[in-house]
């Protein structure tokens, strides 16, 4: 492949190139937002069909733990954003410190969510308890998988702490944050 | 050290998150509480899009698409809750 071909290939992302990080992560981000959007839309429609079942299910959830997790994830996003800012200034060591903080808070989010699941399962609630809990476990479980994947991505980009890598990992992390911000009130609080 | 934009966004997000947790106990009317909760979610989402996802300086198309994702979902959720209240 000639140099010209390489340059043409690198310049082949069009307007996606104006976004921070690797353009490929934005293809993934838009795909994930579409998938979660459809899933959350289905949750709203199912609630319309079974309002009493959803009200009873929601009453059994621990919204305080979920609220605490919102604070944890938002703080983790703040650390990741600082990690990106430091990487852009060429401060790799500082960037790594922020990213490790973001990952630790991500780990705390996972731990709190597992405690929450433990309480629910301990009180006899499961995937087949009701339509509400089927959707609740699938939605939050799918999101939790993304949190775990995000921690792995941040760990990978943290090693070299290069600008594009850190921007790419952080963009995925903020998407996970954004989805939780919309999911939390919808599942736990909206009556 | 003065807080920068990222710090200010974090402070705003924490404030909005705490307000979200308090709304159900402070606002007894479900439709109003739901509207407030979802408006708070939209505000948090917007700050994340602009300052954390860093789309403030990105082409309006991308900023608009992600913002539209937030607005459509919170509107759908509010309309759904209003319909449940009317049933």
TrEMBL record, chain A:
- Single GO MF annotation: cytochrome-c oxidase activity
- Using the record, list the residue span of the signal peptide; answer none if the entry has no such feature: none
**Its GO biological process terms?**
aerobic electron transport chain
- Report if keyword Acetylation is assigned: no
| Domain annotation Heme-copper oxidase subunit III family profile: ranges | 25-191
A GO term from the CC aspect: plasma membrane
The similarity annotation says: Belongs to the cytochrome c oxidase subunit 3 family.
Check the record and name the PANTHER family matching this protein.
CYTOCHROME C OXIDASE SUBUNIT III (PTHR11403), NITRIC OXIDE REDUCTASE SUBUNIT E (PTHR11403:SF6)
Q: What is the protein's name according to its record?
A: Copper oxidase
Q: Which organism is it from?
A: Bradyrhizobium neotropicale
TrEMBL record, chain B:
The superkingdom listed in its UniProt entry is Bacteria
Listed GO cellular component terms? plasma membrane
Q: How does it sit in the membrane?
A: Multi-pass membrane protein
- Keyword Ribonucleoprotein listed? The answer is no
Q: Which InterPro entries match?
A: Cyt_c_oxidase_su4_prok
Question: What keywords appear on the UniProt entry?
Answer: Cell membrane, Membrane, Transmembrane, Transmembrane helix
The protein's location, in the record's own words, is: Cell membrane
Q: Does the keyword Transferase apply?
A: no
Q: Where are the transmembrane segments?
A: 65-86
Indicate what this protein is called per its UniProt record: Nitric oxide reductase F protein
What organism is this sequence from? Bradyrhizobium neotropicale
């Amino acid at each position: 492949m000639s140099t010209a071909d390489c340059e043409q290939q690198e310049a082949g992302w069009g307007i996606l190139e104006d976004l921070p990080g690797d353009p490929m992560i934005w293809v993934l981000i838009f795909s994930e937002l579409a998938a979660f959007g459809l899933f959350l839309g289905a949750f709203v429609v199912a609630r319309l069909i079974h309002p009493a079942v959803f009200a009873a299910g929601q009453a059994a959830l621990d919204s305080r733990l979920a609220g605490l997790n919102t604070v944890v994830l938002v703080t983790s996003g703040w650390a990741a954003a600082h990690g990106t800012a430091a990487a852009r200034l060429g401060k790799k060591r500082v960037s790594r410190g922020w990213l490790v903080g973001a990952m630790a808070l991500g780990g705390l989010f996972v731990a709190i969510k597992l405690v929450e699941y433990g309480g629910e399962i301990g009180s006899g609630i499961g995937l087949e308890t009701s339509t509400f809990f089927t959707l609740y476990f699938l939605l939050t479980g799918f999101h939790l998988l993304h949190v775990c994947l995000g921690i792995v991505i941040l760990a990978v980009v943290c090693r070299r702490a290069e600008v594009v890598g850190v921007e790419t990992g952080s963009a995925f992390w903020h998407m996970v944050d954004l989805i939780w911000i919309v999911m939390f009130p919808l599942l736990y609080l909206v009556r | 050290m003065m807080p920068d934009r990222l710090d200010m966004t974090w402070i705003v997000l924490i404030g909005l998150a705490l307000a979200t947790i308090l709304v159900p106990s402070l606002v007894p009317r479900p439709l109003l509480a739901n509207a407030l909760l979802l408006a708070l979610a939209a505000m948090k989402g917007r700050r994340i899009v602009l300052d954390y996802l860093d789309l403030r300086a990105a082409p309006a198309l991308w900023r608009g698409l992600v913002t539209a994702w937030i607005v459509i979902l919170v509107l759908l959720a509010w309309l759904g809750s209003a319909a449940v209240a009317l049933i």
